[in-house]
Design brief:
Alpha-Beta Plaits; 9 helices; globular; Nucleotide_cyclase; AGS_C
Length: 433
């Protein structure tokens, strides 16, 4: 199953219509193969029309698998961040921010392959438009579009940064997955052999390291941030591999990300493998960065499974549902960070959302699999819960910073099934007074 099912199903750009809100499902019966004569009509068979979409962002498709960020803006805008618009010239304020920079790699090389600049613009505009909508869905605000890139700030004034950072990681994983696995192959199928790739850099600046202010003069100014961590997002993007996401060490530290999601970038120099792992900020300060494994991150969602070398989106036969006991609301997997000390109830549901009971009786085993320094310190990385064995529901408490997993094994091999659910837990973050 594809992420944007309606958009890419039966994708054949030659047959698209003039509608700005087109859906490719109308041509699902057509062949994906284009003859040379059709390609001669222009890239995607779109002629010089300026208002056609290659990608249709369908929020319903995305919401089937991922929850929107609780920090999301109701309106999409570009420029100065709405939460900080009250800052006047010569005024400043200190506040945390997550900086996100994504760049389209290889678009310049398409000149000479596409028919004209309008078709090149069409490709780039569709990718950037998708990035705008996906970032908004996960709580980001577009600061600017620059060249082939997009700069987004994930932050809400007076809010702790955990949910903003989770939103940035979610956006980077979804965008990279889609461009690599759905959009790129579709473009290649119609004769564009040169791949279009993206790279992303993300960094977090705490309150004492990010200055908000206006640059320029009244009428010609920009409300933005001054921080090494803002600059770092662009630098990290430049260091990222194709279809890669690079994160600063502050990102790792704030959420205490699982080490299995992180690796050090390496390169060859004179036949010797070298590590590319830090920027020298000053004589006494080196800032470390990491390659973020967005594919492993997506696999921490119950809706994602590995199929060969690819990831597919599925609707599992059984799933775990998580309910916050303090509010009674459902917690959607990896959607935001829960505070410590919250009691959660997990239930086993079938694919139709109906609660299951253990009848006829089956063997059931529950287990908590924690990550991070806090759980490691207390020797609580793996916690079996025999009290709830044989039950289709369980209650647990959040206790440690990090991304943790509840695991439920039902039945005995070879007819057993394993259900998993991931939860982010935050620490106490002191906002500026």
């Amino acid at each position: 199953m594809k992420l944007f099912e309606k958009t890419m199903q039966g994708f054949n750009p030659y047959f698209v219509n003039e509608s700005r809100d087109l859906s490719f499902s109308d041509v699902s019966g057509q062949s994906n193969a284009l003859t040379k004569s059709r390609l001669d009509k222009g890239l995607l068979g779109l002629g010089s029309t300026k208002t056609k979409n290659i990608i249709e962002f369908n929020e319903t498709d995305l919401s089937r698998y991922f929850s929107p960020s609780p920090l999301r803006f109701s309106d999409i805008s570009i420029g100065g961040h709405p939460d900080f618009e009250d800052i006047n010239h010569n005024e400043t304020t200190m506040h945390n921010a997550v900086s996100f920079f994504m760049d389209i790699k290889g678009s310049t090389g398409l000149i000479g392959i596409v028919r004209d600049l309008e078709e090149l613009r069409l490709l780039k505009d569709n990718i950037l438009t998708l990035a705008i909508r996906v970032c908004n869905y996960f709580g980001g605000h577009v600061q600017r579009l620059q060249g082939d890139g997009i700069f987004v700030l994930f932050v809400r004034r007076g809010k702790e940064p955990y949910d903003a950072l989770i939103g940035a990681l979610n956006a980077s994983a979804i965008l990279t997955y889609f461009i690599k696995n759905e959009f790129g192959p579709a473009i290649q199928e119609i004769g564009i052999e040169k791949p279009i790739r993206i790279r992303t850099g993300i960094d977090f600046g705490p309150d004492e390291k990010v200055l908000w202010s206006r640059y320029g003069i009244p009428g010609c100014d920009e409300l933005t941030t001054t921080s090494v961590h803002t600059d770092m997002a662009a630098k990290l993007q430049q260091r990222a591999p194709s279809f890669g996401v690079m994160i600063g060490d502050n990102v790792r530290g704030l959420l205490d990300l699982d080490s299995s999601l992180l690796s050090i970038r390496t390169y060859q120099e004179n036949g010797i493998t070298q590590k590319d792992e830090s920027f020298t900020i000053s004589k006494n300060y080196k800032y470390k960065f990491w390659v973020f494994d967005w594919e492993k991150y997506l696999l921490k969602y119950a809706c994602c499974e590995r199929s060969g070398t690819s990831i597919i989106f599925v609707k599992p036969e059984k799933r775990l549902k998580c309910i916050r006991q303090d509010t009674g609301y459902e917690y959607i997997e990896n959607s935001y960070a829960l505070p410590k000390g919250v009691k959660l109830r997990f239930e086993v549901l079938n694919r139709h959302g109906e609660k299951l009971v253990n009848f006829p009786p089956q063997k059931i085993e529950w287990k908590i699999l924690n990550t991070g320094k806090e759980a490691s310190r207390d020797e609580k990385l793996e916690i079996p819960i025999p009290l709830y064995n044989s039950s289709m529901e369980i209650e647990v408490d959040t206790a440690y910073l990090g991304q943790h997993k509840i695991q439920c094994k039902i039945g005995t091999w070879p007819n057993s099934s394993t259900l998993e659910f991931h939860v982010f837990v935050r620490s106490n973050y002191l906002l500026p007074s």
